[in-house]
Write a structure and sequence with these properties.
By secondary structure, the chain is of the alpha+beta class. 52% of the residues lie in helices and 15% in strands.
C-alpha cells in the first residue's frame, strides 16, 4: 500500500488545494481571509491559555498543526488573489466601456492564422485617457480580420484604435467554457479589428526576460520548421512535439489521435521531457567513459530541462516533469534516499504556488494522475506478470506504462472527453516510437537548417513518418470498433471512479474478505447512486433551442429519447454546439425529427418557415428563416414564439415590435442565447 505517513507533502498539498478551491468558488479576497485568519489565531490562543499545564504538550502539538494548516490555507488564498491580474487597479478590464479606445500593446505569443482572422495574444501597456497616456496592464486576444498584408511578429508593439470587449459567456448548454479557459490564463478581454486600426511602432524585444527568450527561441524553431519543405501535417505535428505549438493542427487529425488514445503525444508533456532527459544522459554516457563528473552532469541536465520548459511556454506537464526529474537528479547526485510520492506532490505544490489556477487545468490534472499511476501500478503490473522471452517482456513493460497511466486517468478522461479509446495500448506501442523519431529528425533540421541536402533529406523522412503515423491513428478512428463515444460521466462518477481505483489497489495488496467486502460495498453504493440519478434524469421532458449562427437547430427530449432538428450543421458545429448537451443524457437514443409538429405532455411544438407557416394553436412556435405568419392565428395567452438564429436582425426588429403590440410572449435566441424549456 501507499506509505501515507512518509508523504508529508500530500497532506500539505491537500490543504493548499482546498484553499485554492475556496478562493475560486467563493471569490474570497485577501482582506476578508486575513481578518478570518487573525480571528482564528486569537481564538486558538485564548483557548490555549485556559488549558491545564498537564495537557500543554499534547495541546501544543495540535495547536501547531492547526495553525500550520491555517497558514497553508491562507497562502493558497493569497496566491490566487495575486495571480488574478484583474484584481489590480490598472488592469485593462477597468477601462471597458464599449467605445473606441486608443492603446499600445505588444504581441506576447506566436500569432496564428485562422479561417477569418489572424489571432494573437497581446499585453496592454498604455491606454489613452483624457488626452494622456496612462499605464495599464492585462492580456487580451486580438483578432485581425483577413486579409493581412503586413507581418505581425512576436515582441512587436502596436498602437490600436478599437473597443476592448469583455469575453462572452457560453451560448449553448454544456458547451466548452472558453471564457473560463482564458480567464484562468489571465486573459479577460478581446479585441476585433481590421488592419486599418493597427499602427506599428518601434519596439525593442526584451530578450533578457527568461520567458521572452524562451518564446523567441520557440518562434525561431516554428519559423525553421515552417520553411523546411514539410507537409502541413508534418509541420504541425513536429512543431507540437518539439515546442508545444499545436495551433495549426487540423481538427480531424486531433480527433484521430484522440480516438486512438495517443492525443497526449500532440501536447508537449512529460514524455517529451523524458526524451530530452534520455538524450542528455546518452551524451554523458559517451563523455563519462574517460572521466566521472556527477556535479557537471547534474547541472547540465537541469539546465537543459529548464531551457526546454521555457521554450515550450512552461507547459504544466513539462513543468511537472522538469521539477520531478531535477529533484531526482539532485537526490541521486548527493546520494540521498528519495521518495517518489513526496517528489511528485512537492513538484505539484511548487507549481501551484506560482500558478494556483492550474489545479483546474485538464492537462495538469491528467499529468499528475498519470504519473501517480505509473509510480503505483507499474511495479505491480511488471512484477506480477513476467515473460521468459526478452522481447515479449520488453513489449509487456512498454504496454504496462500505458495501462498503469490509464488506470488512474480514466475518470478524468471520461469526465472531460466522454469517450474511451479501445486500442490505446496497441496505438501507443506504434505511435510513441514514431514520435520519438520525429523529434530526433526535427532536431537535426533545427541545427542543420542551412545545409540544404541534410534539410531536404530530413524533410522527406519527416513527411513519410508523419503519413505513417496518421495512417496508424486512422486505423482506430471508427466508432464501430475503435473507440466508445457518448459516455455520460458526471462529478459523482469521477469521485466514485477514483474511490474504486484505490479500493481495487487495497484488495490487490490485502486479499482479505474484509477488503472484498469494502470494495463490494462501494460498488453497490455507486450503482444505487447512479440508478437514482438516471431515474431522475429519465423523467425529464424539455425543448432545447440552440444558438447556431444563421442556422436553425433545436431538439425535443422525452426521457432518454431525443428528437433532433438541425438544418445543414457541419460535423464541427454539431460537436461544438449539440453534442455537449447529448453527453449529459444516459442511454441516449437519438432520432431525427420527422415532422415539424410534435406533441409532448399535451404541449404542441411546431417549427414554421417560409415553406410552412400554418398555425393551429400550438404551445411553442419556433420561427425560422424570416417567416411571416398571421398573428390572428396565435393565442396570446397560450402560445410562446421562439425566434432562432436563422432570422435576420432586420426581420427580428419588425416582428418583435408586433409581438409587443399584440402582447405575444417571445424569446429571441440571438439575444438570450440557447434556451432549455421544461415541458
Amino acid at each position: 500500500m501507499i506509505p501515507f505517513n512518509s508523504i508529508p507533502f500530500l497532506k500539505i498539498l491537500i490543504i493548499y488545494v482546498l484553499g485554492i478551491i475556496t478562493a475560486v468558488v467563493f471569490d474570497v479576497n485577501t482582506i476578508s481571509i486575513l481578518l478570518f485568519f487573525v480571528l482564528f489565531v486569537i481564538t486558538v490562543c485564548l483557548f490555549f491559555l485556559h488549558i491545564k499545564k498537564s495537557q500543554l504538550q499534547y495541546v501544543f502539538k495540535w495547536l501547531f498543526l492547526i495553525l500550520f494548516a491555517g497558514f497553508i490555507f491562507y497562502v493558497a488564498i493569497v496566491s490566487c488573489y495575486f495571480f488574478k491580474e484583474k484584481n489590480y487597479t490598472q488592469h485593462c478590464s477597468n477601462y471597458i466601456n464599449g467605445k473606441n479606445q486608443c492603446f499600445i500593446a505588444s504581441i506576447i505569443d506566436i500569432p496564428v492564422v485562422t479561417d477569418k482572422y489572424q489571432k494573437a495574444t497581446i499585453e496592454l501597456e498604455f491606454i489613452r485617457l483624457n488626452n494622456k497616456w496612462e499605464k495599464t496592464s492585462g492580456k487580451s486576444i486580438v483578432y485581425i480580420k483577413l486579409p493581412v498584408n503586413k507581418p505581425y511578429r512576436l515582441g512587436n508593439s502596436y498602437v490600436i484604435y478599437s473597443p476592448i470587449t469583455s469575453l462572452q459567456n457560453n451560448k449553448n448548454p454544456f458547451e466548452f467554457n472558453y471564457k473560463k479557459h482564458l480567464e484562468l490564463q489571465n486573459i479577460n478581454s478581446c479585441v476585433f479589428i481590421n488592419e486599418a486600426q493597427v499602427f506599428s511602432i518601434i519596439s525593442v524585444f526584451n530578450f533578457y526576460a527568461l520567458k521572452n527568450l524562451g518564446l523567441a527561441i520557440k518562434n525561431k524553431i516554428v519559423y525553421i520548421l515552417k520553411n523546411a519543405n514539410l507537409s502541413q501535417e508534418a509541420f504541425s505535428i513536429c512543431a507540437a512535439l518539439l515546442v508545444g505549438y499545436d495551433d495549426e493542427i487540423k481538427n480531424d487529425v486531433m480527433q484521430s489521435f484522440a480516438h486512438s488514445g495517443t492525443l497526449h503525444i500532440l501536447s508537449v508533456s512529460g514524455m517529451h521531457t523524458g526524451f530530452v532527459y534520455q538524450f542528455i544522459i546518452w551524451i554523458f554516457i559517451l563523455i563519462e567513459r574517460k572521466k566521472k563528473m556527477p556535479i557537471i552532469k547534474c547541472v547540465s541536465i537541469i539546465f537543459a530541462l529548464c531551457c526546454f520548459a521555457l521554450i515550450t511556454g512552461l507547459s504544466p506537464a513539462v513543468l511537472r516533469a522538469t521539477i520531478m526529474l531535477s529533484l531526482f537528479i539532485v537526490a541521486k547526485t548527493i546520494n540521498k534516499f528519495h521518495n517518489s510520492y513526496n517528489i511528485l506532490f512537492l513538484s505539484a505544490f511548487l507549481i501551484l504556488i506560482f500558478y494556483p489556477f492550474l489545479i483546474l487545468n485538464v492537462g495538469f490534472i491528467l499529468s499528475y494522475t498519470a504519473v501517480f499511476g505509473l509510480i503505483y501500478f507499474y511495479p505491480i503490473l511488471t512484477n506480477r506478470i513476467c515473460f521468459n522471452n526478452y522481447w515479449l517482456q520488453k513489449v509487456w513493460q512498454f504496454s504496462a506504462i500505458s495501462i498503469a497511466a490509464t488506470l488512474t486517468t480514466w475518470p478524468i478522461t471520461l469526465y472531460f472527453f466522454n469517450q474511451f479509446p479501445i486500442w490505446f495500448v496497441v496505438s501507443n506501442l506504434i505511435i510513441i516510437p514514431l514520435s520519438a523519431i520525429l523529434m530526433f529528425v526535427s532536431t537535426i533540421i533545427i541545427f542543420c537548417f542551412k545545409i540544404v541536402c541534410i534539410k531536404s533529406l530530413c524533410a522527406l523522412v519527416l513527411n513519410y513518418i508523419t503519413n505513417l503515423m496518421l495512417a496508424c491513428s486512422n486505423l482506430t478512428n471508427n466508432s464501430s470498433y475503435g473507440y466508445v463515444d457518448y459516455i455520460p460521466f458526471n462529478t459523482v462518477d469521477v469521485c466514485f471512479g477514483f474511490l474504486l481505483i484505490f479500493m481495487l489497489a487495497y484488495v490487490i495488496f490485502n486479499k482479505t474478505w474484509k477488503a472484498f467486502f469494502y470494495f463490494g460495498s462501494i460498488c453497490i453504493v455507486y450503482l444505487t447512486f447512479s440508478t437514482y440519478i438516471q431515474l431522475k434524469e429519465f423523467s425529464k421532458s424539455e425543448l432545447v433551442v440552440f444558438y447556431c449562427k444563421h442556422k436553425s437547430a433545436y431538439l425535443i427530449r422525452s426521457n432518454n429519447i431525443v428528437y433532433l432538428s438541425a438544418d445543414n450543421l457541419s460535423l464541427t458545429e454539431f460537436d461544438k454546439i449539440i453534442k455537449p448537451y447529448l453527453l449529459s443524457i444516459s442511454n441516449l437514443k437519438l432520432q431525427k425529427l420527422q415532422s415539424q409538429t410534435c406533441v409532448i405532455k399535451n404541449q404542441s411544438i411546431k417549427q414554421i418557415n417560409k415553406l410552412n407557416n400554418i398555425l393551429n394553436n400550438e404551445t411553442y412556435i419556433i420561427v425560422s428563416h424570416n417567416c411571416y405568419f398571421n398573428f390572428n392565428d396565435i393565442n396570446s395567452n397560450k402560445t410562446k414564439l421562439i425566434f432562432d438564429t436563422s432570422n435576420s436582425y432586420g426581420y427580428l426588429e419588425k416582428i418583435k415590435k408586433q409581438c409587443k403590440k399584440r402582447g405575444v410572449e417571445y424569446l429571441d435566441i440571438k439575444e438570450s442565447f440557447a434556451q432549455i424549456i421544461l415541458l
